[in-house]
Amino acid sequence: MTSAAGRFITLEGIEGVGKTTNVEFVRGLLEAHGVEVVVTREPGGTPLGEEVRELLLDHRHDGMAADTELLLMFAARAEHIARVIRPALAAGRWVICDRFTDATFAYQGGGRGIGFERVALLADWVHRDLQPDLTLLLDLPVETGLMRAGRRNNADRFEKEKLDFFERVRDAYLRLALQEPQRFRVITADAPLKHVQARLQEVMTEWLATRIS
Ligand code: TMP
């Protein structure tokens, strides 16, 4: 590959869409193109961020104020951007991030009802000049996602939310995708994994064609 600049790719979606498996799939696709990849996640991705993640997911903090949750997401993100994402991109590596600010628009903006405007204020403050180059939104009906996610033990503070919360999260994600069609690719995840991955491969191949020579 000849591209010197790193690229920033994010995966998004509600619980149960198969993000973790597909992050690894996308990593494999990129590495097959000779790209050096850093895989990371939010909230988390740094020692401080992982500690903030524990606070955010732990039932000890059930009832956390929505603004506290929002600010903790951005606190973890500021650290992640400074310590991991920017240095990797500057070194020409590609970053695949399991969730980024679109998750804050969807979960805090949509799910918690804070609204997009206040999330946008913080996004501008924390990373105005850093946006994903590509966002893969894995989408499926909320009932299906929750059924899949429900198979896991020890549901965290978010996974314990009700159907209507995740309906608002999903709606917000789909609105974001409509607002930025150049950046988003919506992949239907309500299908057998091999079909989802065939579609991901198609989308990535098309996207990469103009970015790798
Ligand atoms: P994960 O299960 O995908 O690792 O994410 C942990 C939870 O954090 C998930 O339920 C979504 C939530 N989350 C937000 O509410 N806002 C955010 O900005 C991010 C990054 C995650």
Biggest sheet strand order reads 2-3-1-4-5
Number of distinct beta strands: 5
Largest sheet descriptor: 5 strands, parallel
List bound small molecules: thymidine-5'-phosphate
Descriptive account of the structure:
54% of the residues lie in helices and 12% in strands. The chain has eight helices and five strands, in the order E-H-E-H-H-E-H-H-E-H-H-E-H. Strands 2-3-1-4-5 form a five-stranded parallel β-sheet, with helices on both faces. 34% of the residues are buried. Helix 4 (101-111) packs across helix 7 (163-179). The mean pLDDT is 95. By secondary structure, it is of the alpha/beta class. It starts with 7 loop residues before the first strand and ends with a helix. Bound molecules: thymidine-5'-phosphate (TMP). Thymidine-5'-phosphate is lined by residues 15, 19, 41-43, 73, 99, 103-104, 107-108, 158.
Task: Provide keyphrases for this structure.
globular; binds thymidine-5'-phosphate; five-stranded parallel beta sheet; 5 strands; 12% strand; 213 residues; alpha/beta
Q: Mind sketching the topology for me?
A:
Blueprint lengths: L7 E5 L6 H14 L4 E5 L5 H11 L8 H25 L3 E5 L2 H11 L4 H12 L6 E6 L2 H8 L13 H17 L4 E5 L4 H17 L4
The site of thymidine-5'-phosphate (TMP) has 12 residues, from helix 4.
